[in-house]
Amino acid sequence: MSVENPLPVVCAVIGRKGRVLLAQRPAHKHLPLKWEFPGGKVEAGEDPAAAIVREIREELGCEIVVGRALPRFLHDYQTVLIEMIPFVCVLADSSATPHPREHIALEWVEPAQVTDFDLAPADLPVISSYRGEHACPP
């Protein structure tokens, strides 16, 4: 895949009470048992913000409110080049509690503890960017 045609992928840094949500990938999928910010592929013609709302509904059975985008970046997994499009989000007031439909586990963690988890490589720049924005306590 060329740099001109990376696969667009969205992810959500879902915040709640000073923590962010991580999801653990199943053993039979690409990047087995790695932790990640939930999300997925953007469909052709789909707006990335709409894609993250759809992906979270499908993967976690909950509703989010998209706050803002973090900087986009490219990540090369050797088999696929992705354009990561991260969003900072919160659960909608009327949302159900997130539950893993496609993942094997979910954890709410302090942003400073995210890198203690075995993160998917493309998620490392996401947490660095997020923590850079939240260097001072709210």
Describe the structure.
- The chain has helices at 48-60, 124-133; strands spanning 7-16, 19-24, 35-36, 39-41, 64-69, 73-76, 81-91, 105-109.
- It is α+β, with helices and mostly antiparallel strands and 138 residues long.
- The chain has one domain: Nucleoside Triphosphate Pyrophosphohydrolase.
- A hairpin with a 2-residue loop joins strand 1 and strand 2.
- The radius of gyration is 14 Å and the shape is globular.
Describe the structure concisely for a colleague.
With 138 residues, the chain is of the alpha+beta class. Strand 1 and strand 2 form a beta hairpin.
List the helices and strands and how they pair.
Layout: E1 7-16, E2 19-24, E3 35-36, E4 39-41, H1 48-60, E5 64-69, E6 73-76, E7 81-91, E8 105-109, H2 124-133
Parallel strand pairs: 1-7
Antiparallel strand pairs: 1-2, 1-4, 2-3, 2-8, 5-7, 6-7
Count of discrete alpha- or pi-helical segments spanning 4 or more residues = 2
**C-alpha Rg, in Å?**
14 Å
Topology, number of strands: 8
The number of distinct structural domains comes to: 1
The biggest beta sheet, please?
A: 8 strands, mixed
* Element string (H = helix, E = strand): EEEEHEEEEH
- Which strand-content bin applies to the residues? 25-35%
User: Taking all residues together, what is the mean pLDDT?
Assistant: 93
Structural class: alpha+beta
Low-confidence region ranges: none
Return the CATH class. Answer: Alpha Beta
At the fourth level of CATH, the homologous superfamily is Nucleoside Triphosphate Pyrophosphohydrolase
* Overall 3D shape: globular
CATH topology: Nucleoside Triphosphate Pyrophosphohydrolase
- CATH architectural name: Alpha-Beta Complex
The separation of the N and C termini measures 41 Å
Helix content: 10-25%
